[in-house]
Design a protein that fits this description.
heterodimer; A: alpha+beta; 7-stranded mixed beta sheet; 4-stranded antiparallel beta sheet; 11% helix; B: alpha+beta; 4-stranded mixed beta sheet
């Protein structure tokens, strides 16, 4: 056995002596690293037993320019950069194209003034990458995709404003205002935690948060999980419930439909029930504060 | 056995089999499997690859000189990496040409220009095209044109039979495969219909003053409000004529258009979907032909839906493209005749026609340019007569459509409409009768 291995390594050594072969990005990255820190390097011969790891490159995610056209996605199957499964139960499913959604609603166009603007809804359609529907809106010279609200239809005009007036605005569904401009008790979605960052909360189908109260410069919103959050009142939010409200009432019906969605079967082994199983009845967690306010004690 | 070479970094650019491993990683490898050395799995699968670090940012402080290890000819920790000056080729090599930055290009201008080209698909469709060309839309072709084709003296012998044969040739007979592709049959159908119309040549001597032209470049500049627009493109098919087309609307109708208000589509701006360029030639007006070309007046433009594979235009967008390019032709002609200054009302309005098709459904259009004063939204408007979605036939099936053992649509040509060809003939005859 050892003789066979030595023969193999001798054969491979002769192969590698010739320098002209394909340039692999891995080797390129490695040599770049090597050039930076020139420590003592060691040659290791190895051969691939899986597909080339350059297949994992997420170049499709690194596009900087915003475009309305859908982008071809590469499925990872739950594998991370090393090639091993990090999340089980993901894989297969219908091919999907990613449509770049603009979560920062209050984004002014390049040459326009900083003032409230209108946009027209051109099309509301299904998005394979999320549970909610998305809407193509056009205003001025640009078109962008946003998360559609419940009663949004093609031809609607929606307003986006960053101004907080003294009186609360009577908001229509689909409009986006800062929290300080809305009356208490409105249903909101696409909540921004830090102003200007883009919405990260309340984006799933049919969800909505409630604006509970406004306290000097901040606003308290109840998220769909009944957790309360305190944010600055300049954070943007859209009014209404997210579209596709019957999403939680759908019935999958068969295992095949789950596979079409890219969900692989879970392990059939019996798992010992620990603290994770069963219904939990706990008090609500404390209100999370995303505002760096000076404490009252100081 | 892992053979180790204690050397500097080995240049492994060419080899896909060698992986450069640092000594600490080798120790990690052996620690992973205990004392056993892993022969079967390769390093690239077993070990976690750290993500590539970004190279350190080089900060230039003016006034301070960087001390580099360049003179010492070897790396010294603590000294900066020497940067060699950018090498510029002193001869011209067309294969390695780098364009200068945008601001240094000779034709660069501060004010952007919005270009409507062949691949533009206007979001608002015909409304946007009408606003851009300052035109009033009248649905349906003008009645005097329709009466041209009704006249039996102007009709072709065995017209219906020959048109049906033309359609069958384009849809069924023009291929060795089962059925010809859409692009092929729409092109063949258009050429067949044009050939049929041209067979009237013996009766109409004016047809001898016409010619078909393909792939000519058009350019027209216009100014709407504060924005500059250009219509540029390489058109498909054009019927050229030695004499200009007669005007369709009289002076009274033209002056009536002053009352018409252009439709606005707020909040969308009219420049949406147009290509914004900073590098352009000002006052570019080119008809695609030299000045001494005998057939100088554009008669009819023909647009095929499947001409460009990269952009698929919906019917609304195709109509918008028709409006814009007929307007571009008329405007370039007006600029050539009357100069670049804006004319409030042209003495002889310029008329251009257009036909667009996808192989079955036709769009007919007549554009009359009354004014080149496009800066404001008021005043005399141009006119567009548009007949949309005219079907030439219902079905042209190779295999019959059978549902529940009953033939719903028979094979062959079904539902031929002779009125559509009459309209096509009328547009062709206009100007010759």
């Amino acid at each position: 056995m050892m003789a066979a291995v030595t023969c193999l390594t001798r054969a491979l050594r002769s192969l590698t002596l010739s320098q002209h072969a394909l340039l692999s990005s891995q080797a390129g990255a490695q040599t770049k690293l090597g050039a930076q820190v020139s420590s003592i390097a060691v040659q290791v011969r190895g051969f691939l037993t899986t597909a080339a790891l350059s297949q994992n490159r997420t170049h499709w995610k690194q596009i900087e320019k915003y475009t309305v056209r859908p982008i071809g996605m590469k499925k990872t199957g739950g594998r991370d950069h090393s090639g091993r499964i990090r999340t089980h139960g993901i894989g297969g499913g219908h091919k999907q194209r990613y449509r770049m959604i603009d979560f920062q609603r209050l984004r002014y166009e390049a040459d326009r003034e900083v003032k409230p603007f209108d946009e027209k809804v051109v099309q509301v359609r299904y998005d394979p990458c999320r549970s909610a529907d998305i809407a193509l809106v056009a205003g001025g010279n640009r078109k962008r995709w946003i998360i559609a609200t419940e009663n949004m239809q093609a031809g609607d005009i929606i307003k986006t404003s960053g101004v907080i007036g003294r009186m609360a605005v009577s908001a229509n569904e689909g409009d986006a205002y800062p929290l300080g401009a809305l009356p208490v008790g409105t249903l909101v979605n696409n909540l921004e935690i830090q102003p200007g960052k883009g919405s990260e909360y309340i984006r799933a189908a049919g969800t909505s948060g409630v604006l509970l109260r406004k306290v000097n410069g901040t606003a308290i919103v109840q998220l769909p999980s009944k957790q309360q959050v305190q944010v600055l009142e300049t954070c943007m939010v859209t009014v209404g419930r997210v579209s596709n409200i019957d999403h939680n009432k759908r019935i999958i019906g068969k295992a095949g439909r789950n596979r079409w969605l890219g969900i692989r079967p879970s392990s059939g082994l019996w798992q010992r029930k620990g603290g994770w199983a069963g219904r939990k009845i706990k008090p609500l967690p404390r209100m999370k504060n995303y505002v760096n306010l000076p404490s009252i004690s100081a | 056995m892992v053979s180790s070479l204690t050397a500097h970094c080995v240049n492994t650019m060419g080899s896909s089999f060698i992986r450069v491993v640092f000594r600490k990683d080798v120790n990690r490898l052996s620690a992973h499997g205990g004392d056993r050395l892993n022969f079967s799995t390769s390093r690239c699968v077993a070990a976690k690859v750290p993500p590539a670090r970004k190279p350190r940012e080089r900060v230039e402080i003016p006034g301070l000189e960087m001390v580099t290890y360049g003179e010492r000819m070897h790396y010294v920790p603590g000294l900066a990496k020497p940067v060699s000056p950018q090498w510029e080729r002193d001869y011209k090599d067309p294969r390695h040409y780098r364009a200068p930055p945008l601001h240094n290009v000779p034709l660069y201008k501060e004010q952007p220009c919005y270009v409507y080209n062949q691949r533009t698909s206007a979001l608002e469709g015909v409304r946007q095209a009408l606003w851009l060309s300052k035109a009033k839309l009248i649905s349906g072709l003008p009645p005097q044109l329709l009466s041209l084709a009704e006249n039996p003296a102007n009709q072709i012998t065995d017209q219906d039979e020959r048109v049906k044969n033309a359609i069958k040739h384009a849809r069924f007979w023009d291929t060795t495969e089962e059925r010809p592709g859409k692009q092929k049959y729409s092109n063949a159908l258009l050429l067949n219909l044009l050939h049929l119309c041209a067979t009237l040549q013996d009766r109409k001597p004016a047809f001898r003053k016409r010619t078909l032209v393909e792939k000519y470049s058009l350019a027209a500049t216009l100014k709407r409000g504060e924005d500059l627009f250009q219509i540029r493109g390489q058109n498909g098919l054009l019927l050229n004529c030695m004499d200009p087309l007669p005007e369709v609307a009289g002076k009274k109708e033209v002056s009536d258009t002053v009352d018409h208000v252009l439709e606005s589509f707020y909040p969308i701006s009219p420049t949406i979907d147009l290509q914004k360029v900073h590098v352009y030639k000002e006052e570019l007006n080119c008809l695609g032909f030299r000045d001494d070309y005998p057939y100088r007046h554009a008669h009819t433009l023909f647009f095929l839906e499947g001409a460009d594979e990269s952009c698929k235009l919906r019917p609304e967008q195709l109509r918008a493209k028709m409006v814009m390019f007929t307007f571009g032709n008329a405007l370039a002609r007006a600029h050539k005749l009357y100069g670049v200054q804006t004319q409030h009302m042209l003495d002889r309005p310029i008329t251009v026609q257009a036909v667009g098709t996808n192989g079955r459904i036709f769009q007919f259009m007549v554009f009359q340019l009354n004014t080149t004063d496009l800066s404001g939204d008021d005043g005399i408007k141009n006119q567009v007569w548009l007949d949309e979605d005219v079907e030439l036939y219902d079905f042209a099936k190779v295999r019959p459509l059978i549902k529940k053992k009953q033939v719903k649509v028979p094979a062959g040509l079904a539902g031929y409409k002779p009125e559509s060809f009459n309209k096509f003939l009328a547009l062709y005859l206009h100007g010759a009768v």
